[in-house]
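Newbie here. two chains, one complex. Structure please?
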Amino acid sequence: AAGVIQSPRHLIKEKRETATLKCYPIPRHDTVYWYQQGPGQDPQFLISFYEKMQSDKGSIPDRFSAQQFSDYHSELNMSSLELGDSALYFCASSLSGNSYEQYFGPGTRLTVT
Amino acid sequence: GESVGLHLPTLSVQEGDNSIINCAYSNSASDYFIWYKQESGKGPQFIIDIRSNMDKRQGQRVTVLLNKTVKHLSLQIAATQPGDSAVYFCAEISPRNSGGSNYKLTFGKGTLLTVNP
């Protein structure tokens, strides 16, 4: 069965650079969630989109922004990167805003040097 | 704010033994709980869930117990296998504080399970 696809899987950036992470949800899923997981930490909710509209906002820094496109894929844009942004970034998708059944992608490992 | 947490950060068991991973939650409004397994370099994978109106739910080799009185959740893995080695997270689904139709999933701190052959 098709799963959530994230790209790139690994990304290395320098401080103050920008990064764009992409997420392709499971076919027919219209809701996307972004999570950040620091080393040895639990995933922290950043932001979610339902039907291309922001549906919920968590601990997302102002330097980050995200959007969901007409094909339901989502992009997380990160600017003025800091060392502390180094983490695993997970995307999850669900159907019709159903937070109960989120399917997670493999994650993008971002390293900021 | 309210959060979900785990008592034990690491658990080491022998292959074939049963494993018990515990979790405490503090949001009494949470009505749904999930256990996730996360292997190294991978995203969280759903294991089992339980609704707040249940005390126990069984899956294949896994059982989740919910004690609402003390706000405690546990995951029991029977006959633990090397492939069970991973980080296990409990998570709760609770209504958004601001209302609305969407619910929020909050992860607790993970427990690293190591299975020794």
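Moderator note: The mean pLDDT of chain B is 87. Residues 9 and 111 of chain B are 4 Å apart (CA to CA). Thread marked as resolved.
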